[in-house]
Automatic annotation (TrEMBL):
It is found in: Plastid, Chloroplast thylakoid membrane. GO terms for cellular component: chloroplast thylakoid membrane; extrinsic component of membrane; photosystem II oxygen evolving complex. It comes from Anisodus acutangulus. Coiled coil: none annotated. InterPro entries: Mog1/PsbP_a/b/a-sand, PsbP_C. GO terms for molecular function: calcium ion binding. One of its GO terms (biological process) is photosynthesis. This is PsbP C-terminal domain-containing protein.
Amino acid sequence: MATLSCSSSSLNSQHQAFLRLPRVPSSTCSLLNGPKRNGKPVIFCCKNTVPDSRTSVQVKGESLTKRRELLLQAGSVAFSLSAFTSIALAENDVPEDFQVYSDDVNKFKIMIPHDWQIGAGEGDGVRSLIAFYPQEASNSNVSIVITSLGADFTRLESFGKVDAFAENLVSGLDRSWQRPAGVKAKLIDSKASKGLYYIEYTLQNPGESLRHLFSVLGIANNGIYNRLYTLTGQFVDEEAEKYGAKVQKAVSSFRLI
């Protein structure tokens, strides 16, 4: 099976589909069902103008709300935890319709469908983005946002335990209690395994399809500073049969190296 490699230079232009990563405001940001440019998804940030009246829990002198916002700035994700099985990235374990994408600069590997496109976002010195998505117009994709962290963020527990963090994350996205009702967010499951957080939840804007989101979060050091990896896989109900299993397999294969 082929292995794709990413260096410090731009991605192979044959696979590159340019996705803009705008500057993130100091408010919640998520990968939702956004606009498309030339049939390709544009990943964008959504400013949340509705204050969250819920009580914040203090962690090491900082509120979970602030820490939740930092992770939301890195992008939101979703995935069925039952599919988070251990998948080795040895070539003989890669399905015929997948290939290994290896990023030797950012130190991660992931299996992606062999016919999916690869796009790089505009970095701002704090965040960088790599996205994988079908060639045809679709609401399904997998993306990885890498965010520089402060010195006090040394491990995922700095954001709180996985269950508390997941509850805080999803409750911060939910606006179903508004009148008129806004986006409905529902936490399905969460767990921690081998230094990573796994979160499964759904999002649904009024009048739109249910979106299934799967998140994997991890922290690694590049020799200079700590970085947060936020992997997001998502698909909508009507694309579940076509892309659901592919998104799940890609997300479950993610490894820091």
